[in-house]
Amino acid sequence: MGLKMNPPEEHLNRQMAGVAFPIPSGLVQALRNARHVTVLTGSGISAESGVPTFRDAQTGLWSKFKPEELATRGAFQRNPKLVWDWYAWRRELVAQAQPNAAHLALVELERRASGFTLITQNVDGLHQRAGSRDVVELHGNITRVKCFEEGLVVPTWKETDETPPRCPRCGGRLRPDVVWFGEMLPADAIDRAFAASQACNVFFSIGTSTLVHPAAALPFEALQHTAMVVEINPCSTPLTARAHYALRGTAGEVLPDLLRML
């Protein structure tokens, strides 16, 4: 079984369906026949919601710092308050952002697909806020906090004047639940991501530069296992020449039109 179709729309031409972005008919047919669809998203999809990319977040008070100076265990050990305050500022930016048309389109694609896996390099939680279920988070989630010493997620803690706050279990400092430079990605997330890339019939790489490993290897893993690979990105990447379809537009433009074609 492939995607659940909407029969009245199936025979409409693109203009009648309100489709503005040219969607290849081969991609539409492949999605209709797909047993499993895997999607990888990067910072481009969040940028459409106004979330600054990792390096673009160096503005105002933070312009004198490089991200690498604030996103390591060593930086946290040297100045935990500085690192905590930077992530608190970034959490405020994320809280002000809203899921965009691309996030919502992926929720609908998940609803229609027989099998679906959403993998993200983003840490903003916008996929979950849009309604996506069981998102594979490769780099963690900035809205969560964990203990620096134990590595366990801490949902609540006692508020004091101390920054960062302390873990209620062991008294260690709390830190954002994100992957810093020099840290390993969550093993379970990586295993699930590679398994989904190997098992899918159609793989989407959306808004990602295909430069940061190991996530950059996922679409090529899908290619090796005979999946149709589709890139949605305004810019060329190392994947572009290898992808079956490279759609030059933003996710917010392309994905809603793709759904209309389905």
Describe the protein's architecture and organization.
- By secondary structure, the chain is of the alpha/beta class.
- Helix content is 34%, strand content 15%.
- It is built from ten helices and eight strands.
- The strands form two sheets. Strands 3-2-1-6-7-8 form a six-stranded parallel sheet, sandwiched between helices. It has a two-stranded antiparallel sheet with strand order 4-5.
- α7 (126-130) links the parallel β2 and β3.
- The longest helix has 17 residues, at 80-96.
- Residues 5-17 have low confidence and may be disordered.
Brief write-up:
The protein is of the alpha/beta class and 262 residues long. The protein is 34% helix and 15% strand.
Number of strands: 8
Number of helical regions: 10
Structural class: alpha/beta
Question: Beta-strand percentage?
Answer: 5-15%
Fraction of residues in helix = 25-40%
Largest sheet: 6 strands, parallel
- Determine Rg (CA atoms, Å): 20 Å
Q: What is the global morphology?
A: elongated
Amino- and carboxy-terminal Cα gap: 14 Å
Strand order of the largest sheet: 3-2-1-6-7-8
The unreliable regions are 5-17
Question: Which oligomeric form is depicted?
Answer: single chain
